[in-house]
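2.7 Reproducibility. Because tokenized structures are sensitive to small changes in the input, we list the exact sequence used for Cobalamin B12-binding domain-containing protein, including any N-terminal residues retained from the expression construct. No trimming or masking was applied before prediction.
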Amino acid sequence: MSGAAARGTTGLDAIRPSDVESASPGGGRTVLVSSMASDSHTWNLVYLQLLINEFGFEVVNLGPCVPDDLLVSECVARRPSMVVLSSVNGHGYQDGMRVIGRLRERPELAGTPVVIGGKLGVSEVDREVHAADLLAAGFDAVYDDRPDGAALFRSFVTTRLGAGATALDAP
Ligand code: B12
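Resulting structure tokens (single pass, no recycling of outputs):
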């Protein structure tokens, strides 16, 4: 009998993110990647997982359409060294402004680096204002549809988490 079956859980329960074996609760080298409630896009998350693996971290990827409560509970349970949120459907600003408040109100997550990136809105208008709002609300960095986003993100990770050289450093 599987562990999930032994606990009497349903099929859906059986694949809860907290059952992912690569997770290392509280581990200093684990980064949590997630989308937010409205966004069903997935390849952005796969891309981020591979990129962060290259930085030398384990990744717990919660996937798309993650409800706020699940995101908060997984962050509190796992205590990742960083939380990376991604949104490309155009609602990232709204989702991000809501979610960062939920994360920061938890004392366990008050000092955790949390960044957001992707295509956070549907137009260029107000992009800078929205980025400033997100920073003021508690994000440590915002990467909104920038061609140099990956390089800036690597720089942030190196500075804040002390990641080693990566493939991006190759000539
Ligand atoms: C495939 C796709 C879908 C698929 C998704 C399937 C799946 N399982 O993932 C389906 C058909 C489901 C879909 C649905 C929708 N989509 Co769509 N989709 C796309 C498409 C064609 C490709 C996305 C993709 O996979 N890219 C590959 C990944 C690797 O790249 P990426 O997502 O762009 O992410 C890159 C960067 O943004 C950045 N990045 C992302 N996150 C982060 C985070 C950090 C920290 C950093 C540093 C960088 C970073 O790095 C990545 C690599 O460069 C894009 C258009 C396009 N050509 O980009 C539209 C697009 C994203 N979709 C769009 C829209 C509007 C929708 C819908 C709302 C359409 C609708 N009316 O229903 C829905 C949204 C549903 C929802 N609830 O979210 C818009 C978003 C508009 C905007 N933000 O301005 C786009 C841009 C199309 C367009 N030009 O209008 N979509």
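Confidence is low (pLDDT under 50) at residues 1-26, 165-171.
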